[in-house]
UniProtKB/TrEMBL annotation:
<comment type="pathway">
    <text>Amino-acid biosynthesis; L-lysine biosynthesis via DAP pathway; LL-2,6-diaminopimelate from (S)-tetrahydrodipicolinate (acetylase route): step 3/3.</text>
</comment>
<feature type="active site" description="Proton acceptor">
    <location>
        <position position="129"/>
    </location>
</feature>
<keyword id="KW-0457">Lysine biosynthesis</keyword>
<keyword id="KW-0378">Hydrolase</keyword>
<feature type="active site">
    <location>
        <position position="70"/>
    </location>
</feature>
<dbReference type="InterPro" id="IPR011650">
    <property type="entry name" value="Peptidase_M20_dimer"/>
</dbReference>
<dbReference type="Pfam" id="PF07687">
    <property type="entry name" value="M20_dimer"/>
</dbReference>
<comment type="function">
    <text>Catalyzes the conversion of N-acetyl-diaminopimelate to diaminopimelate and acetate.</text>
</comment>
<dbReference type="InterPro" id="IPR036264">
    <property type="entry name" value="Bact_exopeptidase_dim_dom"/>
</dbReference>
<keyword id="KW-0220">Diaminopimelate biosynthesis</keyword>
<protein>
    <recommendedName>
        <fullName>N-acetyldiaminopimelate deacetylase</fullName>
        <ecNumber>3.5.1.47</ecNumber>
    </recommendedName>
</protein>
<comment type="similarity">
    <text>Belongs to the peptidase M20A family. N-acetyldiaminopimelate deacetylase subfamily.</text>
</comment>
<dbReference type="InterPro" id="IPR017439">
    <property type="entry name" value="Amidohydrolase"/>
</dbReference>
<dbReference type="Pfam" id="PF01546">
    <property type="entry name" value="Peptidase_M20"/>
</dbReference>
<dbReference type="InterPro" id="IPR023905">
    <property type="entry name" value="AcetylDAP_deacetylase"/>
</dbReference>
<keyword id="KW-0028">Amino-acid biosynthesis</keyword>
<feature type="domain" description="Peptidase M20 dimerisation">
    <location>
        <begin position="181"/>
        <end position="272"/>
    </location>
</feature>
Amino acid sequence: MDTNNPFVALRRELHKIPELGFREFKTQQFLLDYLYSLPQDSMEIKTWKTGILVKISGRNPSKMIGYRADIDGLPIIEETGLPFKSVHSEQMHACGHDFHMSIALGLIAKFIEERINDDLLFIFQPAEEGPGGAEPMLKSEIMKEWKPDMILALHIAPEYPVGTIALREGLLFANTSELFIDLKGKGGHAAYPHNTNDMVVVACTLVSQLQSIISRNIDPLDSAVVTIGKITGGTVQNIIAEKARLEGTIRTLSPESMKKVKSRIQALVKGIEVGYECEASIDYGSMYHQVYNETALTKEFMEFARSNTDINVVECREAMTGEDFGYMLEEIPGFMFWLGVDSEYGLHHARLNPNEAAIEKAIELIAAYLRYKG
Ligand SMILES: CC(=O)N[C@@H](CCC[C@H](N)C(=O)O)C(=O)O
């Protein structure tokens, strides 16, 4: 890889300092340091919590075009062994937000030199992985003043080769809701189970029951997912657990199915309380609106990329991933697309290693489109 490419170098620096949602302090400072090192004549910079908004004034603007990059990392211990691996032992850019940011920096550097007619707004958004930065950022005073007329964003896609993008009109990403279930019963001595209500047994039973929602309550043609990613409970091997906690996420292709899944979870949890004489509480954490690509702009972008660039444009299926960029697309016409980065390991994996050649490809593609649109 061309390590002389300044945006690859910036990506590597950002990769070293992943931070969780709304705690992206070093990331924000790193981005600001770079942004303030650029000529300032056409650029205005504002911060919002740990995020940043950068407006580049056009020569003769009739609209403002937005590009959004998310900036947070994940609580994953990196296992890539890369020389520029995370210096934060328990956090990693395992969802490509380091790519998303460096691509935005590349576009900013380009368009402060080569100004187009329209205004450009670059949004460095915190907390995409949770609890969600897009919705409150959109409601902020800054974004009331600087509200783009159209907006785009990308997400890295390990399964596609470099030089390929994938998208579709309409639904691209699912509706999501986090899921936290706390169980409380009666603990005790491991040798006297009859005197207790074992929350480890209850948690295991509930995890199995939750799987029946997808197989028996949701129309097979209307996909949904319930994933429990974490179970905690108990203290040591010979004490029956008084408490257990399930942490997971729900994904559905329609808002109606989300309601259905939640009502079934509530019923099953109630059944568990009665059946196992314990207390249970459900917290849905943060929820993300589906990512819905506006038809005309998506079509136009796909046609543009096919006719004017060497990018391979794939019309893909919808995915069960979630993205709070969906809130921005609910209010501002635009689209999101997958950017091929060809990694053997997928998103949210400790060995995700996207091909950095995709950074320059993305900068060239988006720059060409912004020149055409603006
Ligand atoms: C693109 C991507 O991987 N996004 C995340 C968004 C997570 C939202 C929330 N924390 C949840 O788990 O529901 C994803 O996991 O799809």
